[in-house]
Amino acid sequence: MSEFKRPLSVLVVVHTAALDVLMLERAKHPGYWQSVTGSCEPGEDLATTAIREVREETGIDVLPGMLTNWHRSNRYAIFPEWRHRYGPDVFENTEHVFSVELPERVAIQLAPEEHRNHQWLAWEAAAQRCFSWSNRDAILGLPHRTGA
Predict the structure, then answer these.
(1) pLDDT in tens, 79-126
(2) CATH at 142
(3) Does residue 2 fall inside a structural domain?
(4) Which of 4, 73, 134, 148 is most buried as measured by Cβ atoms within 10 A of its Cβ?
(5) Is residue 1 part of a domain?
(6) What is the pTM of this model?
(7) Dihedral sign (CA 105, 38, 35, 143)
(8) How far apart are CA 64 and CA 61, in angstroms?
(9) For residue 64, is it within any domain?
C-alpha cells in the first residue's frame, strides 16, 4: 500500500433546508474555512468517501439516500504546503462535489486533529468565508441546485 494520498478527493457541502451551511476551520491552518473534504482511500468509491469523511469530521451519520452527487468535478493545483502528502510526480488533485441536506442545524463533533472550530452560516456568508474557490463556487450554486 502506498504511503501517499491519492489525488482524488471529495468536497461535501453540508447544509440545512434553509441553506445554512456548515463551515469547518482547519486545525493546522487557522483562518482556513471549508466544507467537509477528504481523499479517497484505495478501493473506496466516491460516495463511500463522502459518507466516511462527513462522519469522521463532523460526527454526522449520513445514510446513502441523504447524499447528493453533483456529478461535478474540479481539478486544481495542490498547495505547495500539502505537496509532501502526494507522490513525487503529483501536482494536481481532482475533487468531486457532493452535498448533504439536513432538516435543521445539528450538533457537531469535530475531529480535533483536523478542525479547530465550526460555524453554521447563511450560504452567502459561508461562500465568502471559504479559502477555496471550488468550495465557494459549490456553495454559491446551492440555491440553484436545491431550488431554494
Answers:
(1) 888 899 999 999 999 999 999 999 999 999 999 999 999 999 999 999
(2) 3.90.79.10
(3) no
(4) 134
(5) no
(6) 0.93
(7) negative
(8) 10
(9) yes
